[in-house]
Specification:
Structural class: alpha+beta
Number of helices: 16
Helix content: 55-70%
CATH topology of the largest domain: Heat Shock Protein 90
Bound molecules: adenosine-5'-diphosphate, magnesium ion
Number of strands: 14
Number of domains: 3
Length: 543
């Protein structure tokens, strides 16, 4: 019968402990610790109910109300513990006799539990519960059978009682722990969702309000995101663009390159910068510079490519303008030399024409070659000065160098400078914008000439580096460049000359970069400077 009473006690106890926990998981998730007064009160009510259904033996009532006291002390602290303890005691006193052992027993337990709580604050609640239960057992054994001589001859009775209280403690702490765990998981999940939401809205805010174009391309090459800025830049709505074929928006000359680039990013997981033109709804083309970043999925495969593109039309225009002004300044400087050069053959022609008049016909050949020279120089000057659409062509590097040298030789002659050309065998075919490459050589040779006030030799050599590239080198005997200035060459407006623009080398760098080449400098003060330009060679040869 006693066993049955205990089991009823235990079941009611578990039910009463779990009901508020379950309810709370629906309502609010305040930590248990913050609810000690309310918790103490509720635990007191449970103990009162437990006392109400306890069984009575010789004026003593038996129930597992102490299990709830142990749990309240370890989970809610002494404040709540005292409230529960007092409610439990009052209800106990109301329903049974033998007040003294009940009052003394509870007082001892409250004192002992408060002391234990003080020294076990750092421990986890489960451990604290175990210690409190141990303390409870000791106090119970000392007070009930030993001091108050209650059922001293029935150790089994006491054992049963202590075990049931223990069972109550175990069931109660299991319920509370699992509830706490659940709450921890839920709060963690909510916190993560919130951070995710916050960061998503932050990034969305950036993506939606930037003037850069942000696009995300998936593995199947479809566009899964296009920022609204596409609408301003291209005049089409993002949704409309999403359904368009890439070939339709991208300039036909660049579509193949673009596709190949994207392919490379997906396959080789490499970042890439690209330049391409996109079609505006009204039909004109806009130049964009785009940085493409691969994004790995869970299994290390590239799932997306994020493309951030920027309208560079204005920048291109400015660069074009710079290029043009530098070209014009060179043309201007050349004019004196050219005029001089034209005047010389003209004098010859004039002289010969006078002779011709007097019947000498052998001079025809000479006349023609002088006229051809005038023609060459003037055409070179004109083509250089005229702005032209950029058009990549196959060209012989040897020819470009020779033409440039021819253009500069009048001025070189005036300054006592000789050109020495030293070309290795071969055609040296490159794909280039002829005029631009010419402009590079012009500026480099002009710099060399300007550095050689006392005249001397400028050696221009051309060789193959056997790695699919050729090296054009310019060695002068000029003043040289101090070591500390070498890294600054190519910076805009960096010049050591009184009337220099400091744009020449910057433009050279830009042009050579566009041609996928590079420039290196070596220099010794007072001895001269060596400038080496590496450019990729074309494989095929002209027949
Ligand atoms: P600019 O010729 O208008 O000064 P550049 O960009 O062409 O501008 O050249 C920048 C500077 O680099 C020059 O002012 C000069 O000091 C230095 N430099 C370039 N080439 C040579 C060279 N071959 N020898 C000595 N100094 C040079
Ligand atoms: Mg210069």
């Amino acid at each position: 019968m006693i066993l049955l009473d205990y089991i009823v006690n235990l079941s009611i106890f578990s039910l009463l402990v779990s009901v508020p926990l379950i309810l709370r998981s629906f309502i609010s998730h305040k930590p248990l610790k913050d609810l000690h007064l309310l918790g103490g009160l509720y635990a007191g009510i449970i103990s009162a109910i437990l006392v109400g259904i306890s069984f009575k033996e010789q004026g003593y009532s038996y129930d597992i109300r102490y299990a709830i006291l142990i749990l309240v002390f370890s989970y809610l602290g002494p404040g709540a513990g005292f409230i529960t303890g007092i409610i439990a005691l009052v209800s106990r006193l109301v329903i049974s006799e033998n007040w003294l052992p009940a009052i003394i027993g509870l007082s001892l337990i409250l004192i002992a539990f408060t002391v234990v709580h003080r020294y076990s604050r750092h421990l986890k609640a489960v451990r604290k519960t175990a210690i409190l239960y141990g303390v409870y057992c000791v106090i119970y054994i000392i007070t009930v059978p030993i001091i108050f001589n209650v059922f001293r001859d029935s150790p089994i009775f006491h054992l049963q009682y202590i075990l049931f209280v223990g069972l109550g403690v175990i069931v109660g702490s299991l319920l509370i722990e699992s509830y706490e765990r659940l709450i921890r998981i839920i709060t963690e999940k909510k916190r993560m969702e919130k951070t995710l939401e916050e960061s998503e809205s932050k990034y969305r805010l950036i993506a939606e309000n930037t003037s850069d174009l942000i696009a995300v391309m998936d593995r199947d090459r479809s566009l899964s995101y296009l920022s609204p800025s596409h609408e301003f830049a291209l005049g089409c709505e993002a949704a409309e663009l999403q359904n368009m074929e890439v070939d339709f928006v991208i300039h036909p000359d660049e579509a193949e390159n673009f596709q190949a680039g994207i392919e490379r990013i997906f396959e080789n997981n490499e970042r890439m910068a690209m330049e391409f033109r996109l079609k505006h709804r009204e039909g004109h083309w806009i130049e964009f510079e785009s940085r493409c970043m691969p994004v790995e999925g869970e299994n290390g495969v590239i799932e997306h490519v994020v493309m951030i593109s920027r309208d560079i039309s204005e920048r291109k225009k400015a660069e074009e303008f710079l290029l043009q002004s530098e070209k014009l300044s060179i043309v201007g400087e050349l004019a004196a030399g050219v005029a001089h050069e034209i005047r010389n053959p003209l004098t010859t022609i004039k002289g010969f024409l006078q002779l011709y008049k007097s019947g000498n016909s052998q001079i025809n050949g000479l006349l023609l070659s002088e006229l051809a020279r005038i023609e060459n120089i003037t055409t070179e000057m004109l083509t250089l000065g005229k702005p032209q659409a950029i058009q990549m062509d196959t060209a012989k590097l040897t020819e470009i160098i020779e033409n440039t040298v021819e253009l500069l030789s009048p001025q070189a002659n005036m300054n006592g400078i000789q050109f020495k050309l030293n070309f290795a065998d071969g055609d040296f075919l490159i794909s280039c914008e002829k005029n631009q490459i010419k402009q590079v050589f012009l500026n480099i040779i002009k710099n060399a000439m300007e550095a050689m006030e006392k005249g001397g030799d400028i050696e221009i050599s051309l060789k193959d580096n056997n790695e699919g590239e050729c090296i054009v080198s310019f060695q002068d005997q000029g003043c040289g460049i101090p070591d500390e200035f070498l890294p600054r060459l190519g910076e805009p407006f960096y010049t050591l000359k009184e009337k220099g623009t400091g744009l020449g080398l910057m433009i050279c760098h830009k042009i050579i970069k566009q041609h996928h080449g590079s420039i290196v400098y070596q220099s010794k003060i007072g001895e001269g400077t060596l400038i080496e330009i590496t450019l990729p060679l074309l494989r095929q040869t002209i027949r």
